[in-house]
Design brief:
It comes from Fusobacterium periodonticum D10. This protein is an all-alpha fold. The protein has four helices and no strands.
Amino acid sequence: MSWRNDSAFILESFGLNENLFLFTLSMSTGIFLVILFFGILANTFKNTLVEDENLRLHKILALVGAILMILFGIFQILILGE
């Protein structure tokens, strides 16, 4: 079995074969938005992160990132579940 057949089987088993375009668009949009968001945050907090280690800021950024990833995943599931 080639990787195309495997990926098609995985998508079909989750019922995403019909919504392949929407699935691809939402995944690529989500990845782009997360990278853009963290790029903006990294540029904003560059001086704080470089000057000394601020563990509280690192924890806040990690928490914000985790929450955003979870919320966006739930959002994608709700869109694809229609």
